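## tool: complex_structure
## caller: assistant
## args:
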Amino acid sequence: DAGITQSPRHKVTETGTPVTLRCHQTENHRYMYWYRQDPGHGLRLIHYSYGVKDTDKGEVSDGYSVSRSKTEDFLLTLESATSSQTSVYFCASSNVLARSGANVLTFGAGSRLTVL
Amino acid sequence: AQTVTQSQPEMSVQEAETVTLSCTYDTSESDYYLFWYKQPPSRQMILVIRQEAYKQQNATENRFSVNFQKAAKSFSLKISDSQLGDAAMYFCAYRREAGSGDKLTFGTGTRLAVRP
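## result:
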């Protein structure tokens, strides 16, 4: 789906280095999310944003920070990468919550990060 | 906190047959939404079907249907006339009705194999 893109798609880095993953959406969606996917855990929410400069923590936020300076961009930063952060990272977006339940998350294609 | 449980890590079905994937969840909310997502080898997350808890009628989408048992907190996915393209990881997900954006809580997934 061209509406939401992630970069880089693959990255290998070393322990202790900073890493930034970028999510860009063209849907003008208000909400954006970062999830990580690990075997046996499904997808777990790292951080989310409900508007420009408005972010909050998810269930696995330790070691991660985010920023959203524009509606279309949501950055995930690992200040000092660790091997436990080796994972596949998914960005998602959705629009304003409505009772109809029509606010389905649109996912990016994922970014595979390997920390050696 | 809400939890979503998928007790079948792997399932297998013969092409053209029917298979049911199980999902249970735990919540104290009365209004919420439930989803099934498909993740093929491409890693893309694809919405299969969604169910609003306030609707008693089970959702259907072509060959996909759900059995939503609100009292039992059960939300199973039935795939009829299984096709080779249905082979994927399937995730069950939960979302509160309001006050949380569209944050999803995912199960750990069920990997479905389709035998030709």
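## assistant note: Chain B has a mean pLDDT of 93. Chain B touches chain A at residues 1, 4, 6, 33, 35, 42-45, 47, 50, 52, 91, 97-98, 101-109 (CB under 8 Å). Handing back to user.
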